[in-house]
Amino acid sequence: MTDNNNMWYHRVVQRLGLMKPEDGPTIRIVYANDAERNIEYPTNVISNTKYTLVTFIPKNLYEQFGRSTRNDSILIQYLFIRLFDTFRRAMNIYFLFIGILQLFPSITPVNPVSTWGALVFIFTVSAIKEGYDDFNRYKRDKLANERQFWVLRNNARVQIQSQHISVGDIICLQNNDEIPCDMVVLATSDPEGTCYVQTANLDGETDLKTRLAPKETMGMSEQELHKFKGVIECPSPNAEIYKFDSRLSMQANTKVNTYTHSNWITLSAQNILLQATNVRNVDHLYGMAVYTGNETKIGKNKKIPPTKWTKLDHSINRITVFIFCLQLSLVLIFGMIGEFIRSSEKESVWYLGYTPDYKDPWYEFIIIPLRFLLLNSLMIPISLKVTIDVIKYAYALFINWDLKMYYKQSNAPAVANSTALSEDLGQIEYVFTDKTGTLTENIMLFSRCSIDGQVYGVEGSIFEDQSLLEQINSNDHHSVNFFRAISLCHSVIPSRSPEDNSIFYKASSPDEEALVTAASKLGIQFTNKTPSALTIQVNDTIEHYQLLHTFDFTSDRKRMSVIVKHNATNQIKIITKGADDMVFKRLHKNNDIKLQIKHIDEFAMIGLRTLCIAERVLDENVYNSWLENHFKEASCSLENRQERLAEAYELLECNLDLLGVTAIEDKLQEGVPETIHNLRQASIKVWMLTGDKYSTAIQIAHSCNLVERGCRIYTIGKEIPRDDHEDDYSTGVTRELSALEIVSSIRDIQDHILTNGGNYDLDNQSSSNNIGNSNSNSISNRDVSIAVEGHVLTTVLKFAESEFLQLSGLVSSVICCRVTPNQKALVVRMVKNTNKICLAIGDGGNDVSMIQEANVGVGIGGREGLQAARASDYSIARFKYLQDLLFIHGRYSYLRTSFVANYCFYKSLFICFIQILYQIFSGFAGTTFFNSFSLTSYNILFTGLPIIGYILDRDLPQSILKRNPYLYTFTQEGKAFSPKIFLRWSFRSLYHALIVFCATAAPFIYNTGGTDIDYDSISMISFTAIIFIQSLTLFIESNTITWINHALIWGTIPIYILCVLVLNSISTLDMYSVMTHLTDRSSFWGSFFLMICVCLVPIISIEYLLQLYKPTVDEIINQIRSDNHRGGFGGFFNCTQSTTSLNDGDYSPPSSSTSHHLFSSNIANNNNNNNNNDISYHSGNGNHHMIRNSSMVVPEEHHNQRSKIITFLLYRSLTTPLAKRLSRRKIRGNKEVIELIVNTYEDTYDDDHNQSYYNSHPETQSLLRDEEAVETSPLL
């Protein structure tokens, strides 16, 4: 088999799904200006679409009923992935099966339209959405494919569309052009072969990156490039954007597809320009295409994000499975009864239609069960999936519209990249956070340094330290050499201001920018950089250096090195900067570092980031030997190049001399301590995962409130001190530990905590806080934290995971320091595997794996780029916005979706139970009680649309939710959707079904005088009552009613009446004149109102009793607000709340100096930051309104309808003061609830019109004024 045929063989096998793409050839051979040899590679056509006009319908149906079209499987994976995808679409397949059964007239008791109508509607909506999204992708692809570029072909420069570019083409780009494909730089307009690219489209970083042409090609002219016949050997297309281990031969062999070439030139990531990046600061450049179309590196990174299901989704699925099992049980039971009656009495009850057209015995046996299956198919609501999809999309819009999470300084709003996880935001139990850029500003300031055992910058700014300035001005060897090393060892790019020609620096690392800027201010200025040279100015003296090599920083190496040669002295030296643990082990043995270690610990204790600077003078012979024998061979390797280079670097990064230590300050973001405190108050455990050293991490943990005052920190691997004051937090574990020692340390810490490590609190411990189910119910975990270092964590994850989980369940926070990106992800996975809902938040590319591993990933767009924000489920600009995301959007989303799911199951069971009850009086024949119109319109039109308005529901105002994080625990524990709540709604549906069916059928079934009412009339009496009962139930259960809710809830009534009138007037239909006769009967109206009253009044009464004797915290707060704001019963129904636009979060809680209503919107501050000309005003009755210029009309809402109705019925009975009622409600001793109530009073105390109310209630005054009175009050 020839090489060309071999390539085609691999591609065919990949398409058949028998092999992953990476299992194919590992090397790609690209020939310059040789289309014949490169014909096997695809052109530069970009295609991100899923469908074509021909494949749209069959492919979309296949996705909805089968698996998604993803190219991620081989035969081994096929069964598992396809089975999982099929299970996810089991509900779609179920309703398709029901629809097919209804096509058989002898089986179906109803018109097939009743199922097919709803099925077609739901799938059409999904198909339209998919088609619209795919059409937008097609338009974007078309725009990209039709861009014009200059290419060298046939000894001429021609302009072609991007989609016609082929591998091996030499492309000419101008300044600011977007790069059409992955290409190797051959030559640029810069004599040094340098060009710059901006990778904002790739990784979000706006800083310029340097790219270099190989020395052998950088001087080639356009005429020479026309004749260029070089060959590049590079890896097969892959997703590694920071790696390009390739090589170039200047002259390819003339024999086609011969892979042996000589005189290889090393190529790396410094030589490649990636698709979608932009050329900057160069007039023109030439490059050779190596990866095109969807095979570029950015194309390979376009993966389907991991599918994440919320905890609520799993609960809904379990309930659905339970209902399906219940349905099958009823089918089996009623089918057997019906078959028995059919076989014994079919001749006497011939009118029931028992005898089918077919006479086969096996067919007769399954008729009745199949009829019951079709009748009971409504138990699983067909509209549930599309309803939840719609409201989840609305939740994402609310987050995007929330002005409170908009950060003006960076013009960064909150962005919901996922529309599927809003409910999990309301159930978070663990938060894993990065430190730098997430908790801190990531704005680095050079604060202090240690040079030759002397610390500078202690008394004030280091730039004003006279002793340091004098030493630099006098050319002190130690000081000048220290800052000279800082000015030479970096990846910073200098630029000059067009205004005053001053130098400023751009760098991808804020640390490097801070260091080089500080050195410049102190007199050692970095002035120029080329690919092979560096220029610095030391006290007005210009120094030129050759840049021989750069050993880049990586998260594994934790250091960076450069090899430079001084032009004046020809001295070669290697300069290294990095973490102390990496640099110290590479120092010459003659270095005395005790004083530097002390300084590093002192810097870390005040939260400063430290780096060590070291250098070594290299003998020229040693350098040349290393270059020839180690570096060249490693740099030209196509396999394991990075590993071989790292080994080569190690040979020179040794025997270093320490020059000094830098200390950089990174300030905390505003609001971080308060946010972490509130997260902990909400029973959310916060873990900090950072690459910083131990002492720095401990100090930041204290300053950000992760470790509260008086909290004790235990370090895994360190001996437990007898007294907390004896613990030395300046150093971590100083030696390598065995797995046995680490396990023993964990157990010792656990025993110490359980015996005397914290404050006992027997009443308020929840087993849900204990991951490992250890015996932690006897100790409070609010005053204990643990710390673990990266090298210890590696052993813990391998050998002591269960012990570590048990220990973490006893503490309030965990600090993981010196951890790698992979360790971050492993820690998150470890906790997530215990069925805890985890949130990970970070800002850099090293946090992406952690963010994608968590149940919910939150990215912060910062100075390290947008990698984390783009890979996350939600993107915010500041850590403090996490409160709004969880306490408001998350809580509201969970409660709303829970109610929607409960209501959907309720309404489906309601009508299905009536169908089942009817079978008792129809001989279990499997006939339907309702006509096809009722069954078809019920789930979609009359009950599906009104529930959409529940996305505006709010049980409590946002100000109370933010002031009282304790309220988050209700949703965190999943109390709104549980088997208990589901059973309540199920019993309600059964009760309503019994009332409706009995009130409808009983008067006519047991009427001995006879009646002229027909079958259709009886069913329409029930169905009319169902529609009204459903609407009233939804209205009563809603906490918030806006004009949109009114329109959706009550709008179904006239629509129903209109439909009935139309059907009533068509003589060819079964419903002809049915309603005309019914409305003339007084019995119809009597039974109609009787059903409504009997169905609703008992429910309201039960809720009244529950609120009176067993109220929830929400109900207590609403009662307080009702009493306080209304000052009694007067004006009760005149109190309204006004919302902003439907973003559910554009207003801020009132300040203590305002006199607005507690539940009014105080958004004056937001008006100052709003660019949409939003208008805020107060109406005459004190209501606060907001009109957004860029959104829909603002609805006015009436808050807590259910509370109003129940309070109206009970107001006279609730005459005792609130404080006395609290004792009956059994909250004695619950300090969190009492504090919550006190906070609620504080929110409303400043209202002037309520002052008289407080004066007349001294008991509430004591609750408000003195917290000690809460615990000692005789009322409690």
From TrEMBL:
Binding-site residues for ATP, renumbered to this chain: D434, K435, T436, E512, F553, K577, R609, T690, G691, D692, R818, K824, N846, D847
Annotated EC: 7.6.2.1
UniProt subcellular location: Endomembrane system; Membrane
Matches recorded under Gene3D superfamilies: Calcium-transporting ATPase, cytoplasmic domain N, Calcium-transporting ATPase, cytoplasmic transduction domain A, HAD superfamily/HAD-like
KW Transferase (keyword) present: no
Sequence ranges assigned to domain P-type ATPase A in this UniProt record: 147-300
Residues reported in the UniProt entry to bind Mg(2+): D434, T436, D843, D847
Record field: transmembrane: 90-107, 113-132, 319-341, 361-382, 900-921, 933-952, 989-1006, 1018-1036, 1043-1063, 1083-1106
GO cellular component, one term: plasma membrane
SUPFAM superfamilies: Calcium ATPase, transduction domain A (SSF81653), Calcium ATPase, transmembrane domain M (SSF81665), HAD-like (SSF56784), Metal cation-transporting ATPase, ATP-binding domain N (SSF81660)
Domain P-type ATPase N-terminal: 30-67, 76-116
Record-annotated active site: D434 (4-aspartylphosphate intermediate)
Residues of the signal peptide: none
InterPro entries referenced in this protein's UniProt entry, alphabetically: ATPase_P-typ_cyto_dom_N (IPR023299), ATPase_P-typ_P_site (IPR018303), ATPase_P-typ_TM_dom_sf (IPR023298), ATPase_P-typ_transduc_dom_A_sf (IPR008250), ATPase_P-type_domA (IPR059000), HAD-like_sf (IPR036412), HAD_sf (IPR023214), P-type_ATPase_IV (IPR006539)
GO molecular-function term, one example from the UniProt record: ATP binding
Disordered, as annotated region: 1143-1179, 1256-1276
Cofactor(s) needed for function: Mg(2+)
Composition bias, Low complexity: 1148-1173
Pfam family, one: PhoLip_ATPase_N
Membrane protein topology class: Multi-pass membrane protein
Catalytic activity entry: ATP + H2O + phospholipidSide 1 = ADP + phosphate + phospholipidSide 2
NCBIfam families reported in the protein's UniProt record: ATPase-Plipid, ATPase_P-type
Protein name per Swiss-Prot or TrEMBL: Phospholipid-transporting ATPase
Lineage, highest ranks first: Eukaryota, Amoebozoa, Evosea, Eumycetozoa, Dictyostelia
